[in-house]
Specification:
Chain lengths: 316, 445
């Protein structure tokens, strides 16, 4: 059973904010090539929320949704919101090698599970094929493993067994995993994997064509489980100036290193939201406030108000 | 310079004994023989233009008295013999033998030193002929002179007929351990199998090799193929690894199940350097984010061909028994091999799952098994269309509802009564009918 059956993705507020932030960042890719010419590959599930947003906001038309549930094909086909979406059925490990990555792509591997060797294998495929200008994003569950009764089964051992001990960074210890620690370890593992693949791939290229990776996203959020979304752009060394011109750094949520951007969603009423909105954007970063709203909530709202979702009951 | 004049000289030149010891210590006898076969195959390769080796033969004889290898593979020119073939190491300015497998310039001499005390090389090309014959013990005695001598040579011979062209190498006064090995039938079988393996590709292309009069066998390089189930084929040329181009071809798919023979086969300039590779050196195991080799994967077969005019660019080890795992070119290709094998392993896993379900009678038949059974054997060389491995998509199979068994005792009188009411004759039927009745009446949703 996929998690789509438990919850409508639209209702995950942090995810919703993240999606809008990503969309805004994608808009800046036009320096590398018309954004309409990009292809999008994602896991649309039954709701296709990301597909709808990226199609409407960016006019991306070449869209592929990877769907692992092969028993409900008709339902997925029926729920496709736009005709330009193609659904490929099968696990990502099976489907990805069938997809052509010869042209610029935005790929969002939005897994619900934890980091596994299959995920690293998916990255292996994408990073061994993706061309300059492509953006690749991975979301994984980084809730620390529950401490089992058996003391011998440590979190460190568990991850070593899952992905191989040579992939776990040297300085990782048992203390690295609690809280958001698992997210930090996983980001490092993913980054190391990407570097290794590009390094291997670059053996073939002359200097100006050598491929580089620049991390752009390092989101931490928790609608329920702790989630990590990390990703970035592949570019060849000759195109470094393109990257500068994209000015990703002007976006408050872009993170190029290990520092994370935490999406925290305050619980506010519509009346409070309207009251806060009237003070935004605040001049010179002044504090905003609403009666009886905690200053920290108001401050969190200030960071994300442009992406803030509003949920209401509606007759559509 | 005379030693008396220059007292500053400290002797650092190697002795011949050390040299021979170092050269031969790390090389097994089998490899020494294979090196000689490699030279003959190189000779044929330099002549063949259309990939057809059927005009060429190599004959190997090994006994207690002597070892010999003869071929009709073009012969060695006097220039090659003088400047290269008998030298230790390949001079930098030596012209490349295109697509050759002998690359380090040690093979032939090393083999002589490994085998015995006397050697003789008799070689004829279309325009020349020479004989070199030496007693290694005598050569060792002359400590300062490293040269060999031609015993006979004719650089401009005109009356040579086609069937005289070729090389015959003989090593006599074999060393004791060599003699012993040549008397063991198992050892001879092993050598034959090693040659068959190393030159599987050229043998398949028509080269005939015999050992003590027996022809060596062909190894089939085939896949199972159908419209639904097709091997993958990848081909690419690389120009940035040196002055010559390296061509890489990867064929991968499934064949008959064989645990020993499953895995990757890697060829460098036609020479098989890895057979049925099943470790992390290729694509297996967690360091490659892949599963370990496993009985379910024993259907897998992959052939990788690296070809280059410059043999030194190829990622093989000096002994030609493996690939150089540190080669950046090999790592690049391995990335591709991993991408190619993934869907094949997925298919094999799904096949195993379906078979297990059939065994448990949870499904009537396995659709993947059916497509596997419908395949036909095809040689790798008939696969020309580039593309990924093609397999039927796994369909979620509606399995039959799981069934449990109930057994219980009730008064016989009651059972008989129910038999009459239900119009059945067995106790079993009474149990089933009453159960069904209860389900129908009480379990409606």
């Amino acid at each position: 059973m996929g998690s789509y059956e438990e919850i409508n993705y639209n209702l995950r507020p942090a995810k919703c904010i993240e999606r809008k932030m990503l969309c805004e960042a994608f808009g800046r890719l036009s320096v590398f090539g018309k954004i309409e010419s990009y292809g999008y590959i994602g896991f649309g599930s039954n709701y296709f929320t990301d597909f709808s947003l990226f199609h409407k906001a960016l006019n991306i038309c070449n869209m592929t949704s990877i769907e692992k549930d092969t028993s409900n094909k008709k339902r997925f086909e029926f729920n496709k919101p736009f005709s330009c979406i193609k659904i490929e059925f099968g696990n990502s490990t099976e489907v990805l090698p069938r997809l052509n990555l010869d042209s610029k792509k935005i790929v969002w591997l939005d897994y619900d599970g934890k980091l596994t060797k299959d995920i690293l294998l998916d990255l292996n495929y994408i990073f061994s094929k993706a061309v300059s200008g492509s953006v690749i994003i991975v979301s994984i569950n980084v809730t620390p493993e529950t401490l089992s009764d058996e003391i011998s089964e440590s979190r460190l051992e568990k991850i070593k067994v899952e992905i191989g001990s040579n992939k776990v960074p040297n300085d990782t210890s048992e203390k690295s995993f609690p809280g958001w620690g698992t997210a930090r370890v996983c980001r490092k593992i993913i980054l190391n994997e990407i570097s290794q693949i590009l390094n291997t791939r670059n053996a073939e290229y002359k200097k100006e064509n050598k491929l580089c990776y620049r991390q752009l996203f390092n989101f931490h959020y928790s609608d329920n489980a702790k989630m990590l979304t990390t990703g970035g752009i592949i570019y060849d060394e000759g195109h470094e100036s393109h990257l500068t011109r994209c000015s990703f750094n002007d976006l408050s949520f872009v993170r190029e290193n290990e520092e994370e951007y935490i999406i925290k969603v305050p619980n506010l009423t519509f009346k409070e939201i309207r009251h806060l909105d009237e003070q935004l954007p605040s001049k010179n970063g002044e504090e905003i406030s609403a009666p009886a709203v905690k200053p920290s909530d108001a401050n969190n709202y200030k960071r994300i108000y442009r992406y803030f979702p509003s949920f209401t009951e509606a007759n559509l | 310079m005379n030693e008396n004049i220059d007292n500053n000289i400290i002797k650092a030149s190697p002795t011949k004994e050390l040299f021979i010891f170092m050269l031969t210590r790390d090389i097994p006898l089998i490899r020494a023989i294979l090196d000689l076969v490699d030279n003959s195959v190189d000779g044929a390769t330099s002549i063949v233009t259309d990939g057809d080796y059927s005009n060429f033969w190599i004959q190997i004889e090994a006994s207690e008295e002597k070892f010999s290898i003869s071929d009709n593979c073009g012969g060695i020119s006097i220039k090659t013999a003088r400047d290269y073939a008998f030298r230790f190491g390949r001079p930098k300015d030596m012209e490349l033998t295109k697509g050759s497998i002998g690359k380090f310039g040690v093979g032939m001499k090393r083999s002589f030193f490994k085998l015995g005390n006397r050697f003789r090389v008799d070689s004829t090309t279309s325009s020349s002929k020479f004989i070199v014959e030496h007693d290694v013990r005598k050569w060792l005695e002359e400590t300062e002179n490293w040269h060999f001598q031609f015993k006979e040579k004719d650089e401009k011979k005109t009356d040579i007929s086609e069937n005289q062209i070729g090389t015959k190498i003989e090593v006599a006064e074999l060393f004791e351990n060599v003699k012993k090995n040549f008397c063991l039938e198992n050892y001879i079988t092993e050598i034959k199998s090693e040659i068959e393996k190393a030159h599987a590709l050229t043998i398949e292309k028509g080269l005939s090799i015999s050992f003590n009069g027996q022809p060596l066998g062909k190894r089939t390089l085939t896949f199972l193929n159908s419209d639904e189930l097709k091997p993958a084929f990848y081909e690419k040329s690389f120009e940035n690894f040196g002055n010559s181009v390296i061509n890489a071809k990867i064929y991968a798919g499934i064949s008959e199940r064989d645990y020993e023979k499953g895995g990757w086969y890697i060829f460098c300039n036609g020479r098989m350097v890895l057979e049925a590779e099943q470790t992390s050196l290729t694509t297996w195991g967690i360091s490659n984010n892949m599963p370990k080799y496993h009985p379910d994967f024993a259907y897998f077969k992959g052939f990788v061909f690296f070809d280059s005019d410059d043999a030194e660019l190829l990622p093989w080890t000096t002994t030609k028994t493996g690939v150089d795992a540190d080669s950046s070119f090999y790592k690049l290709i391995r990335l591709e091999m991993i991408n190619i094998i993934r869907p094949i392993l997925d298919f094999l896993r799904n096949l195993a799952t379906e078979r297990a379900l059939v065994e448990k009678e949870a499904i009537d038949y396995s659709p993947l098994e059916k497509s596997y059974q419908a395949t036909k054997e095809v040689s790798y060389s008939n696969i020309n269309e580039k593309g990924n491995f093609i397999a039927p998509i796994k369909i979620k199979i509606q399995s039959r509802p799981q069934i449990g068994r109930i057994q219980y005792n009730r008064p016989l009188e009651d059972i008989k009564k129910l038999q009459k009411i239900l119009k059945v004759y067995s106790n079993k039927a009474v149990g089933e009918k009453t159960f069904d009745y209860f389900v129908k009446m009480e379990c409606e949703e």
